[in-house]
Amino acid sequence: MIVFVSLLRTLRTHLRRVSWPVVASALALHMVASWLLLAAAGEPKLLGADAFVYWYVTTATTIGYGDLAPSGLAGRYVVALFVMPGAVALFASVLAKTSATLIAFWRRHQMGRMTYDEMRGHTVLVGWNGRESVRLVQLLLSDCNTDDEGLVLVAEGLAENPLPDRMRFVAVESYADFDGYERAAVTRAARLIVHCQTDEQTLAAVFAVMAQLVGGERVHVVAHFNGETGARLVRTHYPHVECTRPLHVDVIARAAQDAGSSLVATQWLCAGGATQFSVVVPDGAQAVSAARVAEAFRRQSALWIGYLERGAGEPVLNPRDDARIAPGTVLYYLAEHRIDTAHLAWPTLAAEAA
């Protein structure tokens, strides 16, 4: 009795929602009933499996080619009074259910309810700041290093994806929401940018993210703070997290002391024209002098400006010619476009140094 009541309740739920099982069952029953009625009416041309399915579909879709049709009066009444009304109504139900399913799927993407477990090597952007974030997305997508793997936005307070044609969206109630970062697949991302509206939100997001990156995942994390307090706290606990701060006051002072400095600083970091890039010395390369590295960049019409050794906290700018550049060192340079590591010819540099 309990099983029967449970089945009845389930059936009522499906009927009330007009679910796919209900639509499929009604369509199958109507096709069987139509075949039986046509058989009773003496319509042998319509009873073959291939012929019946073809004729039923063309009838249900109101196409009606006319190459197959009932020949007797009884068959015509069966088609007119039973087959056509039921088939057309069921076909309309299938179209409505299909459209509703596609719209619901699109809305889940638009409203940030999807999970992106299949993504690898992508960029995760945490926080949304209007036009500033739009510009950030444009810069990320304009660089060949970050434009192919995909971009996922994790943000609170947004009802819909602000840029649905450029990135995916995960909505969260709080920046400390672990589930949101799991749905954005942060452990499989290549880079993560935390740029929230307040330092408190940025701090909560950084600690929530780093709590998930406990397995040694190689994710480059960049966090932007307006004040020094939050940045110092993050650097204390996670030295490898790159913390950035606004440079407006520094740029104003430098522009007043050295005319045109603000233009140079802006050009260094903006897309278009000569821009700052970075490249990592391959692990299998031999250590070479800074003079050799500078010469390799000049051959590529690039200007080498400094380096950051593995494990070091601060980069070295305008290095001495006799400085040794070891494998794993990050090199910073100015160029019109990003340079492939292979074009710098590390084996050749090592041979020349020898």
Automatic annotation (TrEMBL):
Pfam families membership: Ion_trans_2
Region forming the signal peptide: none
Annotated keywords: Membrane, Transmembrane, Transmembrane helix
Record flagged with keyword Membrane: yes
SUPFAM superfamilies: Voltage-gated potassium channels (SSF81324)
Keyword Heme: no
The Potassium channel domain, residue ranges: 52-101
InterPro entries linked to this entry: K_chnl_dom, Trk_Ktr_HKT_K-transport
Residues annotated as transmembrane: 20-39, 46-65, 77-106
Protein name (record): Potassium channel domain-containing protein
Species assigned in the record: uncultured Lysobacter sp
